[in-house]
Amino acid sequence: MRVESLDIEHEIGKLDWSREPKGLYEPIGYALSAGGKRIRPRLALLGALAVGGAEEKVLPAALALEVFHNFTLLHDDVMDKAEVRRGRPTVHIKWNENTAILSGDQMLIEAYKLLGNVPEDKLAGVLRLFNKMATEVCEGQQLDVDYELQEHVTIADYMKMIRLKTSVLLATALQIGAYIADGTEAEQQALYEYGINLGLAFQIQDDYLDCFGDPATFGKAIGGDIREGKKTWLWLSALQKEQHLQTLCGKDVAKTLRVYEESGVKEAAEKEIARLTALAVDNLGVLKDSPAKVELIQLAEKLLNRKS
Amino acid sequence: MRVESLDIEHEIGKLDWSREPKGLYEPIGYALSAGGKRIRPRLALLGALAVGGAEEKVLPAALALEVFHNFTLLHDDVMDKAEVRRGRPTVHIKWNENTAILSGDQMLIEAYKLLGNVPEDKLAGVLRLFNKMATEVCEGQQLDVDYELQEHVTIADYMKMIRLKTSVLLATALQIGAYIADGTEAEQQALYEYGINLGLAFQIQDDYLDCFGDPATFGKAIGGDIREGKKTWLWLSALQKEQHLQTLCGKDVAKTLRVYEESGVKEAAEKEIARLTALAVDNLGVLKDSPAKVELIQLAEKLLNRKS
After folding, report:
1. What is the pLDDT of residue B96?
2. Cα(B101)–Cα(B74) distance, rounded to whole angstroms?
3. Which site in A259, B20, B107, B124 is 20 to 30 Å from B204, CA atoms measured?
4. Four-CA torsion A66, A71, A72, A75, nearest 10 degrees
5. B137 to chain A nearest CA, in Å?
6. Which residues of A6-42 are buried (b: 16+ CB within 10 A; e: fewer)?
7. Could you give the maximum distance between any two Cα atoms of chain A, in Å?
8. Rg, Å, chain B Cα set
């Protein structure tokens, strides 16, 4: 069930990137037109609806969150030298690296321009929440880089990193929506925590599907993380049980998957995803019943059962 | 004469960059500790003082402007592959390119965090002015890139580019200072225009010194712009008089300088710098006399007579 409301895709399409100089704005329009689930602006609207507020006032912040998210993708793709995003060449491939840097910078500024349209009595508060979130996302990205080079990474380290890199943006989207719509502190906090747990579950599910997804529906080759030597939740959990994992499996997908199954790591991941999803749903307990609350619960459940 | 007031260098030094993760924050501290004239925050404070206001309220915005300026230098240095800045290795040389991108992003966010400390009744207005400025600076940088590849660039094009890339940041610093200090619309506009003209004069003076500066005091080799084939004010002016300039001079410094002298372009540049400086001083006419106004006038005159 999806609450009838503002069409985010349509609102994003109304943003005008035909401005001059074209070299600056065209890549922004390109990056934003790639689609995606638009989950962050949707969460901002649901944050407002879930506390009984109107979503119109939240729209500028919702759009700012989506533009910010796409800014992080644009710069992350440069840093990761990723060549494809959502089936199309990334901006630094289609144009060049300097364009990706400068248009990315402008996208971050555009996010703050959209925030400028937040109702004035809420502006200082929204700016504070947004800045805290943006800082944490950059810190999470830095930790991700650090962990690649760092020999000892614990599961706690990993959880901290995905919390910053993925969860806080979802959580802050919900909180900002509730804040603008005059939700109580308790409601804002509950929605924030729901977003945190949803993000953690989502990321571990990502790691899980990379190993155990159905090749027919997953969309990319199974075992990419293993081949790249990524320190995922599954890898770090297996490492706790088997210190010599690296020597035993190297980057061999079949061997690693066997260890994950035989050591119970696969099952542990399933349990952890289910636990975090249940926690997220529990967090919503303080909210009054509403169609928005139902949508949030279904979103968590859909996540648990997704195949790609 | 320098008005006794807040010590910007000291205030910048109080910003704490010892936070974790170090890989994100150390480069920011490094970039901000390089010194420089701190002209932009000084202009913000002078904007307040010149309209009879107190400078303390302007401090957060003044710091935001300096952090923003250094963010643009950091990313520009990546894009220009510049290896040295203020006598030290640039961030992407001392660390790496990805660090320069991500720490630069965080610097831009830090600028907005500082803006969050602007008095709440002025926040929406300051955010609007700051966002407009930041957008124009990126547009100016893009035009600079575009003009390198573009065959026909007029002096009007060039003036538009340096207005966006250099002047609007100086102008907006002054305007924001005056705005926070409750200056009238006319005062704000006068200070803004002063900043625009000051910036234009400064940039053309930069081009001029690159050709006719005293090698003993200029700090770098004379003729760098000519050797790089840059479309400066002098080059574009000479091109108006001599269509075959490229064929005649190529990138030969001595030949080009001779054309600049013989065609009157050198003298025209001197006149243009003096004209813009006089315009800047004229813009201050609507302000009441004050030590801050005297400092602004002296700043423009010092600029006119600078050797490096």
Report:
1. 98
2. 8
3. B107
4. 160
5. 9
6. bebeebbeeeebeeebebbbbbbbbbbeeeeebbbbb
7. 59
8. 20
Angle CA A152–A155–A161, to nearest 5 = 90
- Residue B145 touches chain A, beta carbons under 8 Å: yes
Nearest C-alpha neighbor of B108 from the set A107, A96, A100:
A107
Say yes or no: A125 contacts chain B, CB-CB below 8 A: no
Token look-up 């080059």 returns B235
Check CB contact of B102 with chain A, cutoff 8 Å.
yes
The per-residue pLDDT for range A111-133, each reduced to its tens digit, is: 999 999 999 999 999 999 999 99
Q: Which two tokens stand for residue B242?
A: 């001599």
Q: Cβ distance A200 to A276 under 8 Å?
A: yes
Is B125 at the interface with chain A, CB within 8 A? no
| pLDDT digits 0-9 by tens, A187-203 | 999 999 999 999 999 99
State whether residue A91 is helix, strand or coil.
helix
CA angle A194/A196/A199 to nearest 5° reads 105
Mutate to test the interface with B, among A92, A102, A153 (most CBs of B within 10 A): A102
**In chain A, where does DSSP find H-type helix?**
8-14, 22-32, 39-50, 59-80, 91-94, 97-115, 120-149, 155-162, 168-180, 185-212, 215-218, 224-227, 233-241, 245-249, 253-262, 265-283, 291-304
| Numbers of helices and strands, H then E, in chain B | 17, 2
Amino acid found at B207: D
Determine the average pLDDT of the residues in A72-96: 96
Residue A98 with chain B: CB contacts under 8 Å: 78-79, 145
Helix, strand or coil for residue A88? strand
